[in-house]
């Protein structure tokens, strides 16, 4: 009978998988984060990650239609076909992100989005239907250039 061990004698698998010190560290991290954010809100600390204000120097309204995981069709706001891309690359990424924002906001249809170039060099894709936007210059030169070509393309 000495060989039989009761459940109380065995260590539970949960204690072996997540050490108690790690649990306390995760709890402390969450509480410290909450304290920092609360202090920031209570003291009205200015937002530092907000892009500087600038004047729009060029804009274009576009309709992005996703055809598959890679394909995208780009139309002008009046419906004129600008590009039919079987491998849209970064344009497809932006179209997918905007489509997701529209799904969450329960926006019906596919209203046009706006691509704006500002005088300080910022290039932004904005969706007025949802308030979603993406700072296109932050994704690298090649990705920014894809939207600059759309912006500069003549009608």
Automatic annotation (TrEMBL):
Please give the InterPro entries that the UniProt record associates with this protein: PuhC
Transmembrane regions: 21-42
Asked if Membrane is a keyword of the record, the answer is yes
Record keywords: Membrane, Transmembrane, Transmembrane helix
NCBIfam families, alphabetically? photo_alph_chp1
Q: Protein name, please?
A: Photosynthetic complex assembly protein
Originating organism: Pseudotabrizicola alkalilacus
């Amino acid at each position: 009978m000495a060989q039989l061990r009761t459940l109380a004698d065995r260590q539970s698998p949960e204690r072996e998988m997540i050490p108690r010190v790690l649990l306390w560290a995760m709890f402390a991290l969450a509480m410290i984060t909450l304290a920092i954010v609360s202090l920031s809100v209570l003291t009205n600390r200015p937002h530092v990650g907000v892009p500087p204000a600038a004047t729009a120097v060029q804009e274009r309204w576009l309709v992005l239609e996703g055809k598959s995981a890679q394909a995208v069709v780009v139309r002008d706001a009046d419906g004129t076909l600008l590009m039919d891309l079987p491998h849209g690359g970064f344009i497809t990424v932006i179209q997918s992100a905007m489509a997701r924002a529209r799904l969450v906001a329960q926006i019906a249809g596919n209203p046009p989005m706006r691509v704006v170039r500002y005088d300080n060099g910022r290039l932004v894709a904005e969706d007025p239907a949802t308030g979603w936007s993406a700072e296109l210059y932050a994704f690298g030169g090649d990705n920014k250039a894809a939207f600059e070509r759309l912006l500069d393309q003549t009608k």
